[in-house]
Amino acid sequence: MAVIMGTAGHIDHGKTSLVRALTGIDCDRLGEEKRRGITIELGFAYADIPGGERMGIVDMPGHERFVRTMVAGAAGIDFVLLVIAADEGVMPQTREHLEICTLLGVRHGLVALTKTDMVDAEMLELARDDVSDFLKGTFLESAPIFPVSSMTGEGLDALREAIAEQSRREPKRRSDLFRLPVDRVFSLKGHGTVITGTLVSGAARVGDEVELMPSGKLSHIRSIQNHGQSLEEADAGHRISLNLHGLSVEDISRGDVISHVGAMRSSNRWIVELTCLESSPRALRHRKEVHFHHSARELYARLYFYDRDRLEPGQTALAEVHFSEPVSGVFADRCIVRSFSPLRTVAGGSILHPLDSSPRRNRISPEMQVRLLALPTVDDAERISTQLALAGMQGVSLAELSLLTDLSQKALDKHLQAMSGRGLAFCWDKDSRSWISAQGFEGLSLKALEAADTFHKKSPLQQGMAKGVILGGVGSTVPAKLAHYVLERLLRSGKLVAEGELVRLPGHKVSLANDQQALKDALLKAHLATPMMPPNHTELFAELNITLKQALPIFKLLVQEGTLVKIREDLYYLYTSMEEIRTKVREWFASHEEISPGDFRDITGISRKNGVALLEHLDKEQMTMRVGEKRVLRGRKS
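Predicted structure:
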């Protein structure tokens, strides 16, 4: 597996000269860099390690004005070579670069004490002691210190051997999420747009369809190169350049991310675990605007703390970060915060939730805040459980869980199936492989049942409600497939009962007050009195001294019970009468090809006005079909 080494240290401490002495490659490629004798942009080199592996090297600028460029380079390294000049010792950017590497999660490295040809033995020993004292309490406390001279070659062989040994540490990287943060973009004559970056995870292949985030623009990879060598495929840990089809230089900015189509998401806010450096001159304030660095990207952001107004030096807390523009990240990515005035590194941390879908901070309980802060140290199953719990009643797709946990889809599938078997999670959409926690499902189920209960209390005369009432009760922001999944599970479990097109609670029964029962009996009696000639509503309501508003719920109940059949708004027939009418019509068609309104009146004795309405009703039932002024039996073969 390929690894990347980065150089870090104060300006003019000999980082670029040391890389040139070690590899023969001059990382200063710009004319201005050569004129001024300082590194401005990131430089790149490589070293062939015994055993056949090629190690990438990122040479980072040391001037304080180019710290943001240094951060872009340091974000992709596996170990650091901290360079300190023997004639100057520890300087401001030495400290800041080491702090940045620490905040970015770099945990291994070496120390080169350069320019030994510029000092005598006593001065060299003092410099070594000074560096040892400086490194106490840092991740480089036990790192070997190599006195070297790029001019004379002294100590270079020992340093090369130590670098080769360090490069054999295999970093943990994902294999299934292709992600390349862009640190350079340029146009090459005859080839088009080329981008470079460190492949932090996954693999890139010539011909792959890719997506540029956060813009979402699509492209495909024409060619891949690694330090001048053409490749068909490159895997994580390589410094590569990609020739992209259909994108111009203007389409791409430093910090954009190249990934496979649909793999990444862009967001305007993240939840992060943030630590204020002990060396910070002041506390970080709630709502403070800062320079935010993630991978190769720098952007303005504002910090919102969950449980405090200030983050004091040395303290760690949960923060919601709001960005000036969309950005793409993955759980456990590291980030750097720099203040505006003075312009310096003041904090850093780890991404806990890189998607906009997280609840706002005032809706996250103290218990969930504790779980979020513990995410970097918990096992994979607990990490998945926490992110599912945070998704709540919205659920989350497998692709999103991949970003929220930094686990491969294979590992996610394994854990989710185990959780499903224990009833801790449910897959509610097999197409997108979307999941919801048991707590989230129970919350949605409760909302659905409350909606049903509310409906029954509001409409006690109705036997049930349309499914849309339940789906609406689940919540308008809940995905439609998830709402339907909840409804189907409730029906399957018997917590809801379906009768035809209606749904009800299993214990619900129509309950009529005494006056309503009397009205029901009166309406039914009126229809039973003249089965083939239902009463006129105006006359009937006047006789019973009721209004249409009072009568409609009773009519609806009688229809739901199957006692009456609604023909039109003011005309209802007994179900038994309708069966008799259908029988007479079928008997007519046994010896006739068609039926007219007059024929219908003759065989039923029903007036023409009601007869036309009944014939139209039979058309809606698809028993008959109108042809001109007559009807034919639907489905009859001629």
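Summary: The CA atoms of residues 595 and 631 lie 5 Å apart.
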